[in-house]
Automatic annotation (TrEMBL):
<dbReference type="InterPro" id="IPR014710">
    <property type="entry name" value="RmlC-like_jellyroll"/>
</dbReference>
<dbReference type="InterPro" id="IPR018490">
    <property type="entry name" value="cNMP-bd_dom_sf"/>
</dbReference>
<dbReference type="InterPro" id="IPR036390">
    <property type="entry name" value="WH_DNA-bd_sf"/>
</dbReference>
<dbReference type="GO" id="GO:0003677">
    <property type="term" value="F:DNA binding"/>
</dbReference>
<dbReference type="Pfam" id="PF13545">
    <property type="entry name" value="HTH_Crp_2"/>
</dbReference>
<keyword id="KW-0238">DNA-binding</keyword>
<feature type="domain" description="HTH crp-type">
    <location>
        <begin position="152"/>
        <end position="220"/>
    </location>
</feature>
<keyword id="KW-0805">Transcription regulation</keyword>
<dbReference type="Pfam" id="PF00027">
    <property type="entry name" value="cNMP_binding"/>
</dbReference>
<dbReference type="InterPro" id="IPR012318">
    <property type="entry name" value="HTH_CRP"/>
</dbReference>
<keyword id="KW-0804">Transcription</keyword>
<protein>
    <submittedName>
        <fullName>Cyclic nucleotide-binding domain protein</fullName>
    </submittedName>
</protein>
<dbReference type="InterPro" id="IPR000595">
    <property type="entry name" value="cNMP-bd_dom"/>
</dbReference>
<dbReference type="GO" id="GO:0006355">
    <property type="term" value="P:regulation of DNA-templated transcription"/>
</dbReference>
<feature type="domain" description="Cyclic nucleotide-binding">
    <location>
        <begin position="11"/>
        <end position="117"/>
    </location>
</feature>
Amino acid sequence: MDKEILKKSLIFKNMDDKQIEKCLQALKAREKNFEKSSIILGAGQITESMGLVLSGNINIESYDIYGNRTILSNINPGHIFAETYAILKNEPMLVSVVANEDSKVLMLNITNLQNIINAKEDWSTKLLMNLLMISSNKNLILSNKIFTNSPKTIREKVLVYLNFISLKKNSNEFNIPFNRKQLADYLNIDRSCLSNELGKMQKEGLITTKKSHFIIHKKTTK
């Protein structure tokens, strides 16, 4: 198990090796490997465990009754998923967790949350605080998702999303975690319409893009 990934992950923030080890024991940690496109957790499933991505990349997806996919978020190494469903016992998942590439995940059983609370040790206090911070951070991401999908036109949606990533990366040049199809699903727009709009924006000098790489060109004032 990659100890550096664990130390850098938000769930184990501010913990030393011994505290992390106690957490892993309390959460009955187990590693699992998933091939690209395989379902890690499916909609309708009840889970007792949250997952920590150790390597690879996964998507949180939802499908409507016609099979149309919407990508809700992308999870990279060091980040967790399904913690809300694991804490809320017997709550069926409304989304699916899918491997975007070959991935390794550390499954952490959190059904005995009360025991963790009762432990009242340094590691348990830090774990609970970290879960609270993760929850708060995800609320911000959800707010951005709603903000991104609020604009009416395709260009507005694209610009809001690219501006968010630019601010997050603190750079006008960056890679996004999606290919064209995935970005279209995330923004809830047609792929061909997205490609056409990106082409227009590039011709107008607003952006430069190739695959998942983007450069935003700031307007200069005369």
